[in-house]
Amino acid sequence: MLINKYISETGYCSRRETTRRIAAGRITINGKVCVKGDTVQSGDVVLMDGESIPQRNPEAVYILLNKPVGIVCTAAEHVEGNIIQYVNYPARIFAVGRLDKASEGLILMTNDGDIVNKMMRSEHNHEKEYIVTVDKPVSDSFIQQMSAGVEILNVVTKPCEVQRQNEKVFRIILTQGLNLQIRRMCQALGYRVLKLERVRIMNITLDDQLKRGEWRHLQKQELELLMSRLNDPGHEE
Questions:
Q1: Are 100 and 80 in contact (CB under 8 A)?
Q2: Would you state the torsion angle of the CA atoms of residues 57, 61, 62, 65, taken in this order, to the nearest 10 degrees?
Q3: Between β-strands 128-134 and 169-174, what pairing exists: parallel, antiparallel or unpaired?
Q4: Taking 50 as the threshold, does the pLDDT of residue 237 lie above it?
Q5: What angle is formed at CA 94 by the lines to CA 93 and CA 99, rounded to 5 degrees?
Q6: pLDDT 10s digits, 87-110
Q7: What is the CA radius of gyration of the chain?
Q8: Which among 7, 4, 9 is positioned nearest to 36, based on CA atoms?
Q9: DSSP bridge pairs for 161
Q10: Strand partners of residue 128
Q11: What burial letters (b/e) apply to 149-173, b meaning 16+ CB within 10 Å?
Q12: pLDDT digit string (tens) for 5-41?
């Protein structure tokens, strides 16, 4: 992040004032006098006149995005179609986990690092539910093998719940998040995914009111239930 943006987000002073203080040599990054265009990374020590910059605790933000195909779950500004620029939220937020570029549906975004750590810990078995369309009829054998576990990436996936929805569509509930897991599982069984939509993370569910590409803040009841489950690792969904 550019130093001007970093300092402005602390609430200490504006980007314009930061530029003036850079020119005056009043700002250092890791002990080195800052110059215009310098960037700050996680763990860097930024000082103003030799003193640490007071951090403003931002109000916690929890957003549900109905992600469209083509959006990339990255904060890298140089990546076209990155999710941060797409949502264009006025405060700094980031995605909890990811959906690949070709997938769509529910993704949570927040500025709360604690919730990210709790949600991403696989040993807590947090459920994520998907509806998947494949290129040929879903057989009984396919359902059984997907449910029991499929060998991908040199591991066998955890047993999961799989239900046929119609001829070429199935619903699957995962409690782990291997890279491109559903696509790799299907490929290993001779199927190709045509459409993959996430419709639920734990108690947070997509509904028809949130159109593809739209986002909303989590409702109070949704957030309270989510927090109670995250704070109770032994909870079974």
A1: no
A2: -140
A3: antiparallel
A4: no
A5: 145
A6: 999 888 889 888 999 999 999 999
A7: 22
A8: 4
A9: 173
A10: 174, 201
A11: ebebeeeebeebebeeeeebebebe
A12: 888 777 777 788 889 999 999 999 999 999 999 998 8
Ramachandran quadrant class, 122 (left: phi over 0; alpha: psi -120 to 50; beta: rest):
alpha
CA distances from residue 218 to 104, 107, 125, 203, 235 in whole angstroms, order as listed: 19, 12, 22, 11, 21
The structure tokens 């949600």 sit at 119
> Hey, is 116 helix, strand or coil?
helix
> Can 100 be counted among the known catalytic residues?
yes
Active-site residue among 44, 100, 135, 207? Answer: 100
189 is written with which tokens?
Answer: 């069984």
pLDDT tens figures, 114-161? 787 788 776 667 899 999 999 999 999 999 999 999 999 999 999 999
- Residue 174: is it exposed, middle or buried by C-beta count within 10 angstroms (0-12/13-18/19+)? buried
DSSP β-bridge partners for residue 28: 33, 47
Are 12 and 5 in contact by the 8 Å Cβ rule? The answer is no
User: Do residues 85 and 77 touch, judged by C-beta distance below 8 A?
Assistant: yes
